[in-house]
Each structure stands twice: as structure tokens, then as C-alpha cells.
Amino acid sequence: MHMIKYEKNANLIALYKQKMGEYFERAEYIKKTVITPKQNAINNPPPVEAPQGGTASKSKEDEKEDKENAKMKEALSGAIVTEKPNVRWDDVSGLEGAKEALQEAVILPIRFPQLFDETRKPWRGILLFGPPGTGKSYLAKACATECEGTFFSVSSSDLVSKWMGESEKLIKSLFQMARDAKPSIIFIDEVDSLCGSRSEGENDSSRRIKTEFLVQMQGTATNNDGVLVLGATNVPWELDNAIRRRFQKRVHIGLPEAPARAGIFKIASGKTKTSIDETGFAKLGEASHGYSGSDIANVVNEALMLPVRRC
Q1: Which of 59-73, 156-170, 175-189, 297-311 has the lowest mean pLDDT?
Q2: What is the pLDDT of residue 78?
Q3: 72: pLDDT confidence band, cut at 50, 70 and 90?
Q4: How confident is the model at residue 79, as a pLDDT?
């Protein structure tokens, strides 16, 4: 219409009028077929059919919460040990008391559930403590191999987030995943980094993490049947008293005795051909007083490097 107003050429004015009529017709068609049905659908939405069971469709808040839960579970999916570490109980030399306690808590409830009832209950929390290199994490690997349930191996990096309130949600999601996949084991290496003693000048976020951990391990509304929390630490005195109480069974993993040290020498040597017999391994065990399992593995590795250096 603006172009027709200032146009002098009669032929162009006729063409513009023809195009204007076509545009009007097209606009009316779009209005009738697209815009009007959409507005009617918005103003008069169809009734929501309730699914079986009588519950209405989820609200936006529920959908948002489901998305957040899915996000948390995806973040923790890397903590689930899918491939077994291939470490058996026989591969752990010595530590008979620790192995027996773990078998009571891990193997018996899964294989022989009829042995336990309301009175006799399996352990819900086991704390392995002792000097570094004595085999705490190695025992956890044996548990992951031998147990027939789901094994979660988590550290502080999996559960601590820079976002406000997300760490507590991660801990809650971890325990919920463990309950859904029970029987399950949650192994927390260096648990003191997450659950140190609470103090007055402590950061508010770390205090909330410890509180959530306490509630999930043993709270009024939590049912952890079939879930074992396995913790390992070198400094048990730095743990919060309430956290320490949640670990009902505490097993000291001390330095190995002479027979255990001899067994570690033998296991660490593996399939390497050697002239050392049983008497020689026993002498090595006697000579390595004060060595941890990790120290002995380093000594064996040093010895295995000698032929390579000669070559």
C-alpha cells in the first residue's frame, strides 16, 4: 500500500495490487489453519487422563527433580566398579581377623540370608584403620571381587562439588543408588578427608556434608538393609565421633607378622623364576621386621629390576 501511494507507473501499481491481494489471502489461510487452532488449544486444553493407579501426571517440579536425580546418578556412575579387580582372599597374605570380619559382613548376608534375623544383624559399617601400605585398599579390592553385589568405590572428589548444596545431593543419591542396587558395598578410601572432626571455625559446606553423611548412614528415615559402608583411613583419631560410632566394626590393619611377610614376598614374586625356596622366603620374612606390605612389594620390584639393568 505504501509503494502504491508513491508509484507513478500504472503497470507497477496493478502488479502491486495483485501481490497485495495474494498476501492477504495467504495471511487469512495461515490464520485459519495455524494460529487459531493453536490459540484454542492453549485456552481450552484437553483433560489430562490419569494413568493407571489414579495418580495425575507429574508437575513441573517433579519433572525438574527427576532430571536433577538423573544428573546426580550420571555423575556417580563412574563410582560403580563394573570390572572385578581379580584379587581373591588368598591373594591377601595374613590379616586373618580383617578377612574374617569382612566375610561376615559381605559374604554371609548375601549367600546365607537365613542366618540373620531381627536379633542377629549383619554389620552395616566397617572401618579399616592402620598405618599406610598395610593392605586396606587391597582388602577392599578383594571384597569387590568376592562379593556378588554392587560395589561403589568413591572418594572426596566424587562427592564434593563447588556448587552450593550439590554435595549433599550427591551423597543422598549415592546411598539411594546403593539401596536400589542392594546388596551393595560403598567403599570410601581416606574417609577422614570427608568426615573429619567438626569444630567451631569450620566451613559451613563441609559441616553440611558431614551432617548429610551421618543422616544417610544411620538416620531416622533411612533403611540401609543390604548396604555396607566400608571406610579406610590412616588417621582414625581425626574422624568425627559421630561418624566413628556409625562404623560398628573397627578392624585394625597392623604391620604384617613374619609368616605374613614371607607370604607377601612369595605373592609379589608372582610367576618369576627364582631359586628361593620356602626356607628362603621364611628367612626373608624374618629379616623384614617392621616392613609393610607395600614396602615388601617395592623391595621385590627392586630385585626384579636387577636383571633388566644387567641387560
Answers
A1: 59-73
A2: 59
A3: low
A4: 61
The mean pLDDT of 146-175, rounded to a whole number, is: 75
CATH number at residue 279: 1.10.8.60
195/280 same-domain check: no
Give the CA distances from residue 152 to residues 81, 84, 116, 190, 194, in Å, rounded to whole numbers and listed in that order. 6, 12, 24, 14, 16
- The answer to whether residues 175 and 277 belong to one domain is no
Instruction: Indicate whether 299 belongs to any domain.
Output: yes
- Structural contact between residues 184 and 225, judged by C-beta atoms closer than 8 angstroms: no
Range of the domain at 13: 2-42
Give domain status of residue 198, yes or no. yes
